[in-house]
Amino acid sequence: MTTIQIILLLVIAAITGMGSVLDEGQTHRPLVACTLVGWVLGDMTTGIILGGTLEMMALGWMNVGLAMAPDTAIASVISTILVINTNQGIGEGIAIAVALAAAGQALTIFVRTMTVFLIHRADTYAEKGNMRGIEIMHITALGFQALRVMIPTFVVVMMSVDSVQAMLNGIPP
Fold this sequence. Notes:
Order of helices and strands: HHHHHHH
Helix content: over 70%
Main location: membrane
Subcellular location: Cell membrane
Transmembrane segments: 29-52, 64-84, 96-119, 139-161
Oligomer: single chain
Shape: elongated
InterPro entries: GatZ_KbaZ_carbometab, PTS_IIC_man
Keywords: Cell membrane, Membrane, Phosphotransferase system, Sugar transport, Transmembrane, Transmembrane helix, Transport
């Protein structure tokens, strides 16, 4: 993988992570995220097929009240990278994505819990009329969401194909 590909994948991961809380551009949806990752890695077809399959699974995943849905952002980005880089099939990609979505769900809860502190700081800034402080707290919270997907993506991208292949072979059929 080239340096340019790594940088583009990290940018996609960041946008996908932020998109999962902004819900405006729907960049966190599997069809969008997998397609973009497939484009960067030179296998857009696999990205579209995996993204479409994951999209059908994720249509019913949504946050309702305090219930946190599985994380489609981290599942889409990382599973597509693993499938394309290790020449795995879509079935393996789905298995990886489901496990990643569950792990990402826990990570999302952790990050959202961390941002509560930032929101309380924003409240303090609001009482003082400090608009810049409020903006900084909101941007920092959004940055945490970007890092939530970027860091695991970076770890996966930096792993050797052999170590990933050994990990995937350890998954029972």
